[in-house]
Amino acid sequence: MKYLLLAIPTFFALISFGQHLNIRVDDPGVVSSPNEPSIMINPKNTEQIMAASNLNYYYTSNDGGYSWESHQLSSASNGVWGDPCIISDTAGAFYFMHLSNPADGEWIDRIVCQKTYDFGESWPVDTYTGLNGDKAQDKEWAVVDRSNNNIYMTWTQFDDYGSNAPSDSSNIMFSKSFDGGESWSEAIRINKIAGNCIDSDSTVEGAVPAVGPDGQVYVAWSGPDGIVFDKSYDQGESWLEDDIPVDPHPTGWDYDIPGIYRANGLPVTACDTSQSPYRGTIYINWSDQRNGENDTDIWLAKSADEGATWSEPIRVNNDDAGNQQFFTWMTIDQTNGKLYFVFYDRRSLDGLATNVYLAMSEDGGETFFNYKINDEPFIAYSGYFFGDYTNITAHNNVIRPIWAESNTSMEIYTAIIDPLALNEPQSATPVAEIKAYPNPFNRNFNIAFENKKATNLTVELFTIDGRNLMTFMDNQAMGPGEHHLEFQVPAEHLSTGVYYLKLIKDKDIEMKKMVCRP
What we know:
The protein is built from 1 helix and 39 strands.
């Protein structure tokens, strides 16, 4: 692509963006006080993303998360009562798993599965599992085995929610569906050691199932024996006689964070089924206060032998000691084996100010890069309810975290994560003297800079998923003095959205977000 040398005025109107574009997900005209979000990319079409939040809201995006529509979910027979879990199956159908509030029955007496074939236009499947008298069924999560479309779901059953009676216990339950959520197996208990019903450290909670490369079903949770692990080799028909210890979870999963009404460090389990060198590795992610109540940290343990043995905890956040990191969630991009984490973070901040960070590991959880992904800190006030978790989804280098913020109200955000920025060296020096404009642009855009000495310049344009769209200049010599360059992109290469302009001046690198409105 040729470029033009132009004489252009030195005054520019520029738009500033953070490194990762933040998008508000919820529509305040539809949604009230959302929290506890869940999100899932359709692996068959990464432009299609669904999210959900308490109590009964779901959100749809057909453009990779740049714009969203807000909706309310209803269930005439089972009711909708929070703990949203969004998953997608091999055919591209989406599922919204949640707690119940049935017209005929007890509050949260079953786990509900609603399914849509048309991306939320209708929800013809409305089934449930786990109904067991008036016992409470709480905090479910589900996973799809992408080799056969089986769905596995785990949750906590309370004999009597909130009871401190020794006769009342909490247990981890399991159910499965082999027909796309149309029906569910009878729920079975899979834990060896029961917990109490207080909904605190000695209650068994945090069961998030994962599928292994050969159809193994894995799950971990926390309770009176710390974090423990169980597995099944026959699609959940049978489980281990004894749970395998992973970590003592020394301060328990129920802890306090200033400004947060309720916080927890419950575990999240995932398994690498990609063709990466780490295929088959099982990961468990959690947080705790083993280093002090003012130093909550994010942790990871892993197993390369199907959960028989576990590594010592590996610290995910890479800041100095003495800061708060909490509400973590983990996912694996099953196309490449990369690990991604999202969590709240208070490093370099005072008081209740809170940022959102993403961590990435490309070496099977040995080392981690940390990146701030929200635009500005928010103040966490205990008058707002954040729920119990954040969430993150990734597929084929499309990475979408989701979280709640307390601003003038509770708000739900995602970030358009730039995979190129995650792969750039942490020490890359900004090319501060280069300006790019106009932004937004149509087909033409300009860059301007001044050289104190001769340099070489590379200018490249990338799509949001990291694909090189065009190389305008490739290590081209530029002499001393002012330079004003105009570039043009053929219309057939562009559509509305965000692109990344990569500028390399000698060894200095800068990534600039460029919004296109053709």
